[in-house]
Hints:
Largest sheet: 4 strands, antiparallel
Signal peptide: 1-21
Strand content: 15-25%
Structural class: alpha+beta
Number of helices: 6
Shape: globular
Pfam families: NosL
Number of strands: 7
Helix content: 25-40%
Region (Disordered): 139-196
Distance between the termini: 64 Å
Strand order of the largest sheet: 2-1-3-4
Protein name: Nitrous oxide reductase
Amino acid sequence: MKKFTLSLAIVMIILVLSACGAKKYEPQAINEATDKCAVCNMQVKDDQFATQAVLKDGKSLKFDDIGCYNEWKSKNGTEQVGATFVRDYHSKEWIELEKAYYVYDKSFKSPMAYGIYSFKDKATAEKFIAENGKGKLMTGSELGSHTWERNSDKMKHMKDSHKPGDEGKQDMKDMKDMKDGHGGSEAKKEEPKVAH
Length: 196
């Protein structure tokens, strides 16, 4: 009888512990027509720079650049965050922020000019650095000590190319230059190669 009671108690403990297991958080799909960055209010594109914080209450906050997420986190902390996701630079697959690897270089182009790209594994990140001849490798935990500075030259270029009445002029010039064989703007020339 004692063995039966002990076995029953163990089963009950296992059931209680499994019922209290950690809640699983999943990223939501990006809707480019309606999703705006929770910090800068820019459109969140369904691309490799999208970042997402799923709060413990189930609400999802979307960011157009991992730097915007860092800005939000600095003001709000992480107590209410269930999980944070970034996208792999090549596949656009969602990855938990803590499990991804990051490559930073001031010259890398990103939506808000933070210059950080995320990768699903260390080998892919190292290959990207080797192919581009630049970049600093970081883990998710090392992002906490990153300086989070924006490339002011890239920010100025973005502001200048988005003055009222100037919409699309730089893009049109870049397309014309590429067609004429001249390359494009300086910002386009600095963009790293994409390896597949």
